[in-house]
Amino acid sequence: MQHHEKHFLQRSGWLRAAVLGANDGIISTASLLMGVAAAGTAQQALMMTGIAGLVAGALSMAAGEYVSVSSQTDIEQADLAREAQELTQNPESELRELTGIYIQRGLSPALAKQVAQELSQHDSLGAHARDELGLHDINQAKPLQAAFASALAFSSGALLPLLTTLLAPHAQVQSWLMFSTLPFLALLGMVAARTGGASVSKSVIRVVIWGALAMVATALIGHWFGVQAPV
Q: What is the pLDDT at residue 13?
């Protein structure tokens, strides 16, 4: 059957990890550099700080995503195993349960029973996984995919403030970071919204506001606890 509607849910897994990684890469690296620059750090130390932040952040994002999504996968597999055991031990009870689900969704009792029986004959575990547990192939957890996407996206995002710091005059690096990072964040919000079919304005506004707040906060901390840059 030909399907004409364009949906974006199948992108939710990798898109969430990629957007989160790029957003963190830009904001955390730019904020880190803002705070260190405000403290009066020399250019070489500033760049080393940014590179260290990129490497540590990318590995942290990858590890965090892998552990988180792996835990989700373990839970899903455990639920499927329990459901398979129930289908083996109590098939009639499970059939009634599936019938009840379809009745709650608006089918008549007779039709709900017929649908439950036919789906169970075709793929009983698949029917229960989808309609009882809410598990679908479209949103199935993929740990390695999420980890790789997060690390790559974080690194890509972190490169932007790093290049700005490299190219900017040292005395003006804070201004350059602020006025270059915010457009980067706005572009990220726009791309994420268009890729996911969401509201562009809402996505742009929230990512820009939180990014600006993070950079201002770290700049203030740098000024309060800063040191004079060596000559």
A: 53
